[in-house]
Amino acid sequence: MNTIPSWQYDEMQQIGKDYGSIDEVEAYDERHGKFRDVQRENEEILQLLAATSDHAIIEIGSGTGAFAIQAARRCSRVYAVDISRAMLAYTKAKAEKADISNIEYRHAGFLTYRHDGPPADALVTNTAFHHLPDFWKGIALERMHGMLKHGGLLYLSDVVFDQRNVLQNIDAFMTNLERLAGPGIRKDVEDHVQKEFSTYDWIIEGLLERAGFCVVSKNLLNGVIGRYLCRKE
Ligand SMILES: C[S@@+](CC[C@H](N)C(=O)[O-])C[C@H]1O[C@@H](n2cnc3c(N)ncnc32)[C@H](O)[C@@H]1O
Q1: Is 9 contained in some domain?
Q2: Mean pLDDT, 10 residues at a time, over the chain (233 residues)?
Q3: CA 141 to centroid of ligand 1, rounded, Å
């Protein structure tokens, strides 16, 4: 279907955190730096993707651009896709400062981005997929499958739950983040679980497979952070 149905989920709305706000965008890197080693995370992703200088990579939910910029240093072209104009502007300013000119910026999301370049070698989405309800995750994965070349790779990382001990795991996750990043983070995680759409690993895996992806590797850290490397079949 080429046109967007009137009943399509409105992915431009901000659910939970407001990533459209400049204050939130400017605070994001510092807050996440307290509990993530983002540079190392991104290096690991690029290694898993075996990224090379002739690769084109799409990132959906690119946020402040940390991955897009790191990937642009390694690859021929990066498409940074986000529903937040503030996030895209922030990324663009950072990239220009670093003299990086091979990033295409697209104001769109999982359900609305139309890839107009050649099929991509890889697609990355990190800590963003939970913004879609499960039905729409299925539609989004089919769309992502269509953006990749045959054999292309999808790296999907997000808050994903192992159903065993799920409530205890979420509580331990909150306590650990609070220890690393201070008391404010607990409310963020509470809002995430209460208002956003993180789901079980078996749902994500069923959706990936039905969309035509083969799961090459899976890591479910502490039963709450899911990292999937998948290949387009
Ligand atoms: C938690 S941030 C993650 C940013 C970055 N990928 C990272 O790993 O830090 C989530 C990002 O997803 C974006 N987002 C939310 N819903 C989206 C959608 N439907 N399509 C694309 N991006 C979306 C938000 O604007 C925000 O920039």
Answers
A1: no
A2: 86 91 94 96 98 98 98 98 98 98 98 97 98 98 98 98 98 96 93 97 98 98 98 96
A3: 15
Point out the ligand 1 atom lying closest to the alpha carbon of residue 12. 19
Return phi, psi of residue 108, to 5°.
Answer: -170, 180
174 lies in which domain range? 22-232
H or E segment and range at residue 59: strand 56-60
Look at residue 63 and tell me if it is in a domain. Answer: yes
Residue range 161-187, pLDDT digits in tens: 999 999 999 999 999 999 999 988 999
Distance from C-alpha of 62 to C-alpha of 80, rounded to nearest angstrom? 6
CATH number for the domain that contains residue 193: 3.40.50.150
> Which residue's structure tokens are 């240093």?
73
Within a domain: 14: no
Please count the helices (runs of H) and the strands (runs of E) in the chain. 8, 7
Burial readout 88-119 (b: 16 or more C-beta within 10 A, e: otherwise): bebbbebbeeeebeebbbbebbbbbbebeeee
Residue 16 lies in a domain: no
Q: Ligand 1 pocket check: which of 87, 115, 139 to mutate, most ligand atoms within 8 Å of Cβ?
A: 87
